[in-house]
């Protein structure tokens, strides 16, 4: 037995918005044997846009039952039946979340008529319910009311079924059931091509808008995971609704996937990637042996400086100065000598007993510098332990080829399959990146544990 269902809601976020109307038809052997129709009090005010769309207002829901009041009876009515809906992921996600709030774990097989329409007539650009009703000349009293929409859906279903031989119709339904976790707008054949190996994947929306970049050591499993738990997560639901196309790149392993992911996110700026987005200008304290106080540097200066003389990475000069100021206070360092304040002679902090007197010769400048660098040591960037660039060899058991990742002074220069290809890399404009630095630090602390081999390259590399 199958149940054709349609719902109206207060919004599109399944984990937070609520159902305001449910209509369903229970069908057995091609006949409607039972039906359900009810307004639902969402226990919140309706957005004006929903009222304009559906015609349902707060007054019409005031006397309606809450979902918790009908949850048990609806659960029994639906239990064991296959759900048929247009954009079934949307309806199913809302139902699961509403039942969850009522303490019930609802699960059902589902079949999406939106995806079915795309398979039946792939040459058509529009597959929303309104377009389909117009195409098949099915009349309806109104749209965006659950009762009318589910009746229209049943008429559409009958139209499709009558136009195909029974064997072909059944084969089409069986194929759809095997792909039920996929968003309706994705090409199943394209998804089947995604390999079970390390790499990065890219989700694109309409007009090739980059939505999301991710990485995994198993591309197929990771991509599919986005579409299996989306009813619990608003972000995953939005991603499933908006993704139109998927691309991927295979890598030699986990390190290669993470390096490429960071690179792509900073280049493409996908709208749903929050981490690893292109950084604003970074600042650092630079204190070489030849100078008596640290100075702020940024951009290319960080890339060119020796890491043993760099302390901290900051997103603004204010953050950098505040951090150094706190260290000065904790260790009774002189803000004046550190260059944080202007002046001559005794500083104000010394008068308060918070400075040991490097500003007025009660502490030597050498001793002050030594204490200051010791205090800053916790902020120091890890020293680059090799004499020049290195090639990191990576070969994952599921990858089709090994690769070398070229790195110099914590800067990722690129990936090649053979060392002889190193000259082909354009390394002139590679700047220091904090995310790449942290990523490389994590892997290079113990290369063997990650299955990596390090090969030092000549200095001129």
Automatic annotation (TrEMBL):
Gene3D superfamilies: GIY-YIG endonuclease, Ribonuclease H-like superfamily/Ribonuclease H. Residues 196-274 form the GIY-YIG domain. One of its GO terms (cellular component) is excinuclease repair complex. One of its GO terms (molecular function) is DNA binding. The keyword DNA damage applies. InterPro entries: DnaQ, GIY-YIG_endonuc, GIY-YIG_endonuc_sf, GIY-YIG_UvrC_Cho, Ribonucl_H, RNaseH-like_sf, RNaseH_sf, UvrABC_protein_C. Pfam families: GIY-YIG, RNase_T. Keywords: DNA damage, DNA excision, DNA repair, Excision nuclease, Exonuclease, Hydrolase, Nuclease, SOS response. It comes from the Bacteria. The keyword Hydrolase applies. PROSITE patterns: GIY_YIG (PS50164). NCBIfam families: dnaq. This is Excinuclease cho. It comes from Vreelandella azerica.
């Amino acid at each position: 037995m199958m149940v054709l269902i349609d719902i109206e809601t207060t919004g599109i976020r399944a984990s937070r918005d609520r159902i305001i109307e449910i209509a369903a038809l229970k069908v057995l052997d091609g006949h409607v044997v039972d039906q359900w129709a009810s307004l639902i009090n969402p226990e919140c005010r309706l957005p004006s846009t929903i009222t304009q769309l559906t015609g349902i207002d707060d007054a019409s829901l005031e006397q309606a039952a809450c979902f918790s009041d009908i949850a048990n009876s609806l659960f029994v009515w639906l239990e064991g039946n296959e759900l048929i809906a247009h954009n079934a992921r949307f309806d199913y996600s809302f139902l699961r979340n509403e039942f969850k709030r009522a303490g019930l774990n609802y699960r059902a097989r589902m079949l999406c008529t939106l995806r079915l329409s795309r398979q039946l007539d792939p040459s058509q650009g529009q597959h929303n319910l309104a377009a389909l009703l117009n195409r098949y000349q099915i009349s309806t009293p109104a749209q965006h009311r659950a009762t009318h929409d589910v009746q229209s859906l049943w008429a559409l279903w009958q139209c499709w079924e009558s136009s195909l031989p029974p064997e072909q119709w059944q084969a089409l339904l069986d194929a759809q059931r095997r792909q039920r976790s996929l968003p309706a707008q994705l090409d199943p054949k394209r998804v089947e091509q995604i390999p079970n190996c390390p790499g990065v994947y890219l989700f694109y929306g309409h007009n090739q808008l980059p939505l999301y970049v991710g990485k995994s050591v198993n591309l197929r499993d990771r991509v599919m995971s986005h579409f299996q738990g989306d009813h619990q997560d608003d972000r995953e639901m939005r991603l499933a609704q908006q993704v139109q196309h998927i691309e991927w790149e295979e890598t030699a392993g986990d390190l290669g996937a993470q390096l490429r992911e960071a690179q792509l996110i900073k280049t493409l700026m996908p709208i749903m990637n929050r981490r690893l987005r292109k950084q604003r200008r970074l600042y650092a304290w630079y204190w070489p042996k030849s100078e008596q106080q640290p100075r702020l540097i940024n951009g290319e200066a960080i890339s060119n400086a020796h890491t043993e003389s760099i302390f901290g990475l900051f997103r603004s000069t204010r953050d950098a100065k505040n951090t150094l100021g706190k260290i000065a206070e904790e260790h009774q360092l002189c803000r004046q000598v550190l260059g944080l304040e202007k002046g001559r002679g005794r500083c104000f902090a010394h008068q308060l007993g918070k400075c040991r007197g490097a500003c007025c010769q009660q502490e030597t400048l050498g001793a002050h510098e030594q204490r200051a660098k010791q205090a800053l040591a916790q902020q120091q960037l890890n020293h680059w332990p090799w004499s020049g660039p290195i090639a990191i060899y990576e070969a994952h058991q599921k990858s089709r080829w090994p690769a070398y990742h070229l790195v110099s002074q914590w800067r990722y220069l690129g990936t090649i399959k053979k060392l002889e290809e190193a000259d082909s890399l354009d390394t002139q404009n590679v700047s220091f990146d904090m995310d790449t630095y942290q990523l490389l630090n994590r892997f290079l602390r113990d290369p063997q544990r990650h299955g990596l081999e390090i090969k030092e390259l000549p200095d001129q590399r």
